[in-house]
Amino acid sequence: MPEGLRFIHETLMRMADGIGGHEHRYGDDPSQSLIVYPAARPNGPVLLFLHGGGWTNGYKEEMAFLAPPFNAAGVTLVSAGYRLAPRHVFPSNFNDVADAVAMAWRLAEVHGHNRDALFVGGHSAGGHLASLLATRDDWQAPRGLPGNVIRGCLPISGSYDFTPGAGSSVRPRFLGPPGLFNEVAASPIFQLSDRAAPFLIAHGSDDLPHLKVQSEKFALVARAKGVPVEALEVDGVNHATILLTAADPDKPWLAAAVAWMRTRLDGH
């Protein structure tokens, strides 16, 4: 694990210490699992959140720190893992998170949450995968899910375009061998249609420059296709600290996320 990611991992794990949930496996690989953190009254929104880590690192347990503030706001949190590169390349990670959505939907029978109130989100690589879930419409039916199973998407500092010229200095290893097909298929901006789920897109004011540009471009294209999009720039945070402050009630993302999900469920 690179030193920067190690620092974030260790910080997140300290923040997650003592927060327990209910673990379920959706595949044979150790990464193919999720943890449900139910709200006391599980009839509110359900947020399936995906960790970051450059598609090569990260653990679902890192996201436990989000559970207490979301649970207090009546939101059930589901933190899902997925197989990592370079051992597993695209579309393995996408298929995994689609399977995780299917399990979270079916676990409503176990934990009592509202399966019709399911949102997806994530940070960095997780924000990318969540956005791909919300823009593609070819994965729901094979898993026995309704086409509108995703009520909305909340990516934080996500990537939306992997084609040449999109600003990344290196080609992410999860894309596998060079080839434009995977670069387009893995890019949420090229999967957009008027059937995509609504978005609340967030990035930091000091975020990676190419991700800020991609966020703004994705929002423009989505709106042009009739997809409801709200954008939030969090002042004074960068690509890492926007996640570390995501549970902070004094920062705008937490309150905005809860209010936006409730608004989507109210039909406005």
TrEMBL record:
InterPro entries: AB_hydrolase_3 (IPR013094), AB_hydrolase_fold (IPR029058), GDXG_lipolytic_enzyme (IPR050300). It holds the Pfam family Abhydrolase_3. Keywords: Hydrolase. Gene3D superfamilies: alpha/beta hydrolase. Transmembrane segments: none annotated. Residues 47-241 form the Alpha/beta hydrolase fold-3 domain. GO terms for molecular function: hydrolase activity. It comes from the Bacteria. This is Alpha/beta hydrolase. It comes from Rhizorhabdus dicambivorans.
